Amino acid sequence: MGINIFTCNYQEYEEKNSEIIKKRESFNYSNNEINQSFSNYDNDFTKINEQIETNDNLKTETNLKQINTTNYPKDDYSNYMFENINKLRENPQNFIDLLENSKKNIKLLKNGKYIFKSRLNVALYKGEEAFNEAINDLKNTNKMKKLIYNPKITIPPPDKEEDIKSMIYLKNEISKLKIKGYWRDNISDPEIGFILMIVDDIEKLPGLKRKNLLDPNMKYIGISSKKIGKTFCGYFTLSNIDNL
After folding, report:
1. Residue pLDDT tens, the chain, 244 long
2. What is the CATH number of the domain that holds 105?
3. With a threshold of 0.85, does the pTM exceed it?
4. Ramachandran angles phi, psi of 231, nearest 5°
5. Distance separating alpha carbons of residues 228 and 164, to the nearest angstrom
6. Closest Cα partner for 145 from 82, 69, 243, 219?
7. 20 to 30 Å CA-CA from 116: which of 21, 31, 88, 242?
8. Number of folded domains that form the chain
9. Alpha-carbon radius of gyration of the chain
10. Can you say whether the dihedral through the CA atoms of 190, 193, 198, 199 is positive or negative?
11. Within a domain: residue 40?
């Protein structure tokens, strides 16, 4: 019995099935085109993400450069405070002797209240006890980075004397800023004001200013001051937020 061998004339097959072949080739081409489109889309999407990340990094770098080019506050009081606050952060233990020597200025009045008697007389709440608490804090505080002066979190000094005394003015300006801590100070002598800011011997929330000044997470500071007539106020703000 012989073996039947199947033979195929390819040219004849193409002629009979030309429509099917065209459709198949068309489908394969379209499929390849779709795959290529998705591949292009993925590449474009990756490039967009990379560009967004680059732009964000450039924005942060630009912001920091803008902040660093304005390194110091405008007035002498604020400059003194800024420089000494950063010295305090760089080495808290260096200021222990300053506080120890300043305790001699604490005076107890006949009415049982304390004052810090110097070029200016400033009311105290606990007197020497508060100084000792501050000294103990400085002994146990590690060195930390300097604060960067940032005009964007600085409270603009008011133009009217009544606004210097006003909590409404202060709270209104604070509401516009992204900050983590703030206070105002009415001691116009920066040397005395700095010592008493570290001690922070007040009845309500004693030591909070010192805690904020020595917070290692803080990055930026704003300081401004204003004196109109005999009325003075210094404004302090602190923040740890980048890209303000």
Report:
1. 444 444 444 455 455 555 555 555 554 444 554 455 445 545 554 554 555 455 544 444 444 444 444 466 778 999 999 999 999 999 999 999 999 999 999 999 999 999 999 999 999 999 999 999 999 999 999 999 999 999 999 999 999 999 998 999 999 999 999 899 999 999 999 999 999 999 999 999 899 999 999 999 999 999 999 999 989 999 999 999 987 6
2. 3.40.33
3. no
4. -95, 125
5. 8
6. 219
7. 88
8. 1
9. 35
10. positive
11. no
Structure tokens at 96: 């222990």
Inter-residue contact 229 to 188 (CB < 8 Å): no
Structure tokens at 144: 């930390």
